[in-house]
Amino acid sequence: MSEVTFDRALLVNVDFSGMRFAGFSVHDSTFERCDFSGVAFEGLSLGLTGVHDAGWPQSVFRDCTFRRTRLAPSTFFGNVRFERCLFDRSRLHGQTFTSEAEFVDCVFRGRVRNINFWGRPDDHDQAVLGRDHNDFTGNDFTGAELDYVAFHHIDLRAQRFPGLPGYALLDRISERVEAVLPLVEHWPDPRHREMARFSLEFLADLAVEQNDDQALVSPLDMGRKLPSALREELFEALRRTPSDTSPGRAVPPHAPAPAGP
């Protein structure tokens, strides 16, 4: 295995497929139409840290393929931008150092697990990055299985997600949770009631804090240790809860008050 560093490099139509790297570091570089299929990265740093008084140049991967690519655990993504890239059954899990990464018009297939996507970089990095938000739009997750995937300060409706029966993109989460919680109180097992209340309230708090009261919801979000029948019951109730507060929805007029005597 080899270790390589790319600094202010431009690589076009390079085939890395099947290679193994003990270390792969990128700084201020661009990769276009490169193939990383089957590549195994033991160490991977993309968009290496910049110097605060000199800025933090962005590295770009454009129209690249990551098919069955073994990304190193806890890859440092740094100031990196992926445009129209394909992540097909890549080992995209256990990735938390992603707060400066941008993803635009990318396609994700296969299992995506334990990863954070951020629409806003860390406050202390915004000055050196020269931006206060990350582009995250047009990404296609319809062929992906999402497990413990978190979207922070991201416009969820600007992405494509898998749909029913496994997922539903919902708005007004806090309102829906408030409407569904009384259903839980009729369950006979107090442990199930407690688990469901905790999961629903956590879902609502996170949606309000992170994504304008929206969330991509699955039955597992109802409580992973709940019996599947109860998870499905809650998921369906949450999904079907009506509301008169959605934008553009007409509010029915009040009936006229009865005439006084």
From TrEMBL:
Q: Which organism is it from?
A: Planomonospora parontospora subsp. parontospora
Q: What is this protein called?
A: Pentapeptide repeat-containing protein
Q: Where is this region: Disordered?
A: 239-261
